[in-house]
């Protein structure tokens, strides 16, 4: 059982669609993360938020737009994605941006 | 850029067998984590090794951090079907900073009856 939830669990979208992924953590942590997990590639860190402020953006294309309204919620807004963006998007949280992270179950995204 | 190579990439064994998964890098890490990810779920942290040469045991799983803190291994004794999953190692470059985690390429383990 995890204290980090993600919705939706599965998403299929066309390249012209706009959709959002949602993450919520119930662990009282103050740092949240978005990762991308593609087949045959290591987990890639996309964004880091600490106390609602974005502290890291790992050269992610602007078609991915994160939003962190508070320490418990994290969104990833998607717009005009490409088929190569199809992947498992994982959210994680930690206390004080420490290295012990707790991951959500992920959103499996397919871009057609 | 720190890279972590895991081997083997895939492993299919029968229940009761032993196995070892390796995680290697040319970089030094302050600590190293091991995760297991089951289908349809996110990675779950199994253990963190901190000191060079450290050995930690978690039931049938034995984790070792290399003396030079560049590599690690995970040994599973008498594997069970419940051990099936993707095993990931992750190196911590800077203590207390999750944003500096480098994940390995993963080892997919399947244990059959």
Could you characterize what this model shows?
The complex is a heterodimer of chains A (112) and B (113). With 112 residues, chain A is mostly beta strands. Chain A is 0% helix and 57% strand. In chain A, strands 2, 4, 5, 6, 9, 10 and 11 form a 7-stranded mixed sheet that branches. Chain A has a 4-stranded antiparallel sheet with strand order 1-3-8-7, with no helix packed on it. Chain B contains no helices and 11 strands. In chain B, 0% of the residues lie in helices and 52% in strands. The radius of gyration of chain B is 13 Å and the shape is globular. The N and C termini of chain B lie far apart (40 Å). The A-B interface holds A 2, 4, 9, 31, 33, 40-43, 45, 48, 55-56, 90-92, 94, 96-106 and B 4, 31, 33, 40-45, 48, 88, 90, 92, 95-106.
The biggest beta sheet of chain B reads:
6 strands, mixed
The value of Rg of chain A in angstroms is: 13 Å
Give the topology string of chain A: H per helix, E per strand.
EEEEEEEEEEE
Helix content of chain A: under 10%
Helix segment count of chain A?
Answer: 0
Largest interface: A-B, 28 and 25 residues
The DSSP helix count of chain B reads: 0
Structural class of chain B: mainly beta
What structural class do helix, strand and pairing data of chain A support?
A: mainly beta
Work out the helicity level of chain B. Answer: under 10%
End-to-end separation of chain A in angstroms reads 32 Å
The fraction of residues assigned to DSSP E strands of chain B is: over 45%
| Unreliable parts of chain A | none
Tell me the number of strands of chain A.
11
Shape, principal axes of CA atoms of chain B:
globular
